[in-house]
Every structure is written in structure tokens, then in C-alpha cells.
Amino acid sequence: MNAALVAGLAAAGIPSSRLVGERAAPWTFGMEGEILEGKGRLVRSVVVSTPDQELAEAMTRLDPPTISVRSGNGDRIDGDGATISVADELVPGTEEVMITFISPFVLMAKKAGREKTVFCENLPTSTLSEVMKAGLEKRAFRRLDLSVSVDPLSARIDGRRKHLTHYRRLKNGRSLILPGFIVPLTLRGNPEDVRFAYLAGFGAKTRAGNGCPALMS
Q1: What are phi and psi of 175, to 5 degrees?
Q2: Partners of 68 in the beta sheet?
Q3: Is-contact 48 57, C-beta < 8 A?
Q4: CB atoms inside a 10 Å sphere around CB 87
Q5: Which H/E stretch holds residue 93?
Q6: d(CA 203, CA 106)
Q7: Which residue among 8, 136, 156, 203 is the one 20 to 30 A from 104 at the CA level?
Q8: How many Å is the maximal CA-CA distance in the chain?
Q9: Separation of alpha carbons 122 and 57, rounded Å
């Protein structure tokens, strides 16, 4: 889905450097759908989120037929026939909000130098808040007046449940699966920074469709 969304946003006038790579704008997405026996996966809806104004404006110009891609291994995504609507934003001035996730967030384990990247198999409860904030500040290219907290009981209960997420298909046809988590978080801080965090996504590989938040109902 990442490649299809990049194609659609490129057609809406956003250069690829703003969509992929180290200096890309922060954005994420989450999907809802179902697995059809023998026919792959049917995507019912996609939520795309960004705090970047230019990218957000381009999302309103998305033309569904351009949200399409076909890979060499036979995977196909076709947005033709889809409808696009703009979701409600946070209420201006919001200083505290509780969120859950449309798509699980994934976390990279600490490594030294050029060690192989490893993803957390267990939720790092004691350091989760600082890890989440550090990731947000890296994508914001600035410090944030923000705290990210997790309820200890939710961390113990929901954090035990891993959500295996498809990252990409390898050349040998096998899927690369990452361990992810869905745990409610509370954001507190400057309204601008709370909004940024809510729209930017959480954890690693956000532009691959991980860590897309939603308001707790």
C-alpha cells in the first residue's frame, strides 16, 4: 500500500523526496480489510495521516485511480472506484488526548554502530515513553514539548499481545514480518506538539503503515 499511496501523492504534485527517505515529511497510514480465501486481501478503508501542511493539502487532491501499483511478484493494488473524505482534526488547543492505534506500532531495539537492525519482540514498558518521544522528535527535526505515557496495567495486558505485521515481500517470495503492539497512550503538552504527534504516527516504519493512531472513543 505504501507504493500505491506514494504513486497517488506523486501524481498530486508531491516530489518523491518529500515521501520517502531520511528527509521525507512525516506521514503514516493504517488499513482495515479482510482476507479472502484464495484471493488475497481486500482493503476496505485506508486512513492516511500527516502533520505536514503541503502533504495534507495534496491528500485532498488524491485521484483514486492513481493510487495503484503492480509489483513483479504479482501483488496488485488498485484504488479505482474508491472515495476520499477528510476526517475531523483534533479540537484546536488540545493539550491532552488518549489514543489507540489503527495499525500496530513497531519498535527498533537499541544497537551499536552497524549492528543488524532488530525489532523489539517484547514491549519495553520502562522506556516506552522516551523511545516514542525520541522517534517523534527525530521526524519533527526539533524538540517537542510533549509527554507520552502508557498506563502500567494496559502495558502489562495489551503489551503481551504481539501483532505480526507484514512489512514487505522479499525477492524469494516470502514475507518479512515485524512484531507490533497496540497499547493506548496518553499525549500531554503544547497543543501544536500534541497535534504533530497525533498526526505523525508512532514507532518505526510509520510510512510503511505502522503506528497510525486514532482517538480513543
Answers
A1: -90, 140
A2: 78
A3: no
A4: 9
A5: none
A6: 5
A7: 8
A8: 50
A9: 37
Question: What single-letter amino acid sits at 94?
Answer: T
Cα–Cα distance list, 216 to 96, 100, 165, 184, 186 (Å): 12, 6, 22, 8, 10
Question: DSSP string covering 17-65, please?
Answer: GGTSSTTPPP-EEEEEEEEETTTEEEEEEEEEE-S-HHHHHHHHT--GG
In the chain, beta strands by DSSP E? 28-36, 40-49, 68-70, 76-78, 96-101, 146-149, 163-169, 175-180, 185-189, 213-215
pTM of the model: 0.86
Closest CA to 129 of 187, 84, 196, 59: 187
**What is the pLDDT tens value at each position of the chain, 217 positions in all?**
889 999 999 999 999 999 998 889 999 999 888 777 766 677 889 999 999 999 999 999 999 999 998 876 667 788 888 888 888 889 999 999 999 999 999 998 877 667 778 888 888 888 888 999 999 999 999 999 999 998 888 878 877 777 888 777 767 767 778 889 999 999 999 999 999 999 999 999 999 999 999 998 7
Task: Tell me the three cell numbers of residue 77.
Answer: 493494488
Cell 512525516 belongs to residue: 26
Q: What is the DSSP code (8-state) at residue 78?
A: E
